[in-house]
Amino acid sequence: MAGLLALIALGLAGCGSNPKDPLANVPAPCPNVALLGDAADLSRYAGGREDLTTMVLDARLTGFQAKCDYAPNHAGLDVTLRLAMSAERGPAATGNTAQLPYMVAVVSADESAVLARATYTAQVEFPANVSRVQTQGEELSIRIPGGVEQARTRRVLLGFVLTPEELAVNRRRGPRG
Description:
- There is one protein chain.
- By secondary structure, the protein is α+β, with helices and mostly antiparallel strands.
- Helices cover 15% and strands 45% of the residues.
- Strands 2, 3, 4, 7 and 8 form a five-stranded antiparallel beta sheet that branches. A four-stranded mixed beta sheet has the order 1-9-5-6, with no helix packed on it.
- The radius of gyration is 23 Å and the shape is elongated.
């Protein structure tokens, strides 16, 4: 009986926390991740007129998935992201594919400084007789350097890469629901 109790105690000793790394079993905090309101929509038109007949593409960022982990030696946070998007092929579109350029920016807590920015492109294909599709961007991993507490005060902003004209369309139209 004593041998059985010793075996159980030994087995349980392997469970639980790692005495060398007290944060080994603690979930990593995530910084604030958000869609950038002015850049959550992408509307493209042909011929300089903004109406339904000249619409080439209308796309929206519809959400995202984010998960966080500690960077090695707790030198910051590793953030893994995947954006969800919808795209509609307009009457003026000439092909059945579209490029959706988007960006990920890491900014200071008060958004006064862009600390890092990267751009990516999602390609969507519209099957025959289908004008609206849902898609996801690739899974992205970014590292926010600094101590964990400093890294978690950063903000991660997601949005489409827009021309000045496309940004002006979004600002005139206002947020869509």
